[in-house]
User: Fold this.
Amino acid sequence: MPDLPESRLIEWAEAIEQLHEHMTREETDGRIAATATTNLWSDFGYPGGPPRMVTLVRQAIEIGYAAALRDVRDGDFDELIEVWQAGPEDDD
Assistant:
């Protein structure tokens, strides 16, 4: 994998920060996303990583959670939620 110039890394970091700010502007979504990310990170994270990189990875994960929360709230998965909640069907 080719090295990226520091200026490009800074641009990517700023883009992630802006998207994070946008996606977590809803206080409840931000809190839920942060809690879920903390739980995930505590089990699988890389605690010895560079602090700036850890922050960016955590923000990226929170972006995904916040986007999923928005999609669920908007009803994008209503039909699937009913299937998921019903559980697996017995083939017997």
